[in-house]
């Protein structure tokens, strides 16, 4: 971890401002808080921010919810406006998406677990692997500020569909 840069003051403040909603979303959808916090840091999108992607889709607000999910979210009365303007709902949706990815694999197998974490961003191998590395690095960087709770992959609880 020595070669990873420490978190900036802005990154620390960003996560601290979101911590309550990160905790609530993690608990509600039974995803590991440490992993979800690292995903939120990896996305590092400001509340209300919309980022255009090269493929024409957009990532919305703090959990980087991609517009590809909008048709599915419509049945819950969640649209782009809600995702952009309600930070806690955005984080809840992010945890829900992560829980869905986790439910698709055997999380007791670290390889499958990390594949699911990468699938939060992309199921395409190349982008999935890149995202896995970014999340892993951010988990290491966050451990300075959020001490590691000892757990095994077998102890992690996931939500079912």
The percent of residues in helical segments reads: 40-55%
Count the beta strands: 3
Structural class: mainly alpha
Strand content: under 5%
Low-confidence stretches: 156-161
Give the termini separation: 35 Å
The description of the largest β-sheet is:
3 strands, antiparallel
Q: Multimeric state of these chains?
A: single chain
Q: For the largest beta sheet, what order do the strands appear in spatially? A: 1-2-3
Order of helices and strands: HHEEEHHHHH
Shape: globular
SS summary, helix count = 7
Rg value:
15 Å
Characterization of the model:
By secondary structure, this protein is mainly alpha-helical. The protein has one domain (9-144). The chain is 55% helix and 5% strand. The chain is built from seven helices and three strands; from the N terminus they run ααβββααααα. Strands 1-2-3 form a three-stranded antiparallel beta sheet. A hairpin with a 5-residue loop joins strand 1 and strand 2 (58-60). Helix 1 crosses helix 2. It starts with 8 loop residues before the first helix and ends in a 19-residue tail after the last helix.
